[in-house]
Amino acid sequence: MILRIFSPGREEKTAQIFPVNMFIGAYLRLEALLKMKQYDLVLQDVVGFFGNMEAYTGTLWEYKNGKGSYDHGVASYALVVIREALANTIG
Predict the structure, then answer these.
(1) How would you class 44 by CB atoms within 10 Å of its CB: exposed for 0-12, middle for 13-18, buried for 19 or more?
(2) CA 10 to CA 28: how far, in whole Å?
(3) Once rounded to an integer, what is the mean pLDDT over residues 68-81?
(4) pTM for the full model?
(5) For 59, which DSSP code?
(6) What's 36's DSSP letter?
(7) Which residues contact 47 (CB under 8 A, 6 or more apart)?
(8) What pLDDT is attached to residue 30?
(9) Which residues fall within 8 angstroms of residue 72, CB to CB, at 6 or more apart?
């Protein structure tokens, strides 16, 4: 279920599952994917969730919709996830 339903591109409410923000929803999914060794999907999700932020401002935001900080410290956790996924993908 986590591989199919809880994706960063999901904007619509699906089966009573609402779209997430970075903290804590997106991070819980990324953590779960890391534990499941779904490293390619982790990297896809990071780009899917944070890509527009980075393209627009070069930073990671507090909220996906841009209504908050455009340079949020807790978003730096995305780099930890990227590093772990790449380390396990590249070997």
Answers:
(1) middle
(2) 15
(3) 89
(4) 0.80
(5) S
(6) T
(7) none
(8) 93
(9) 22, 59, 60, 61, 62
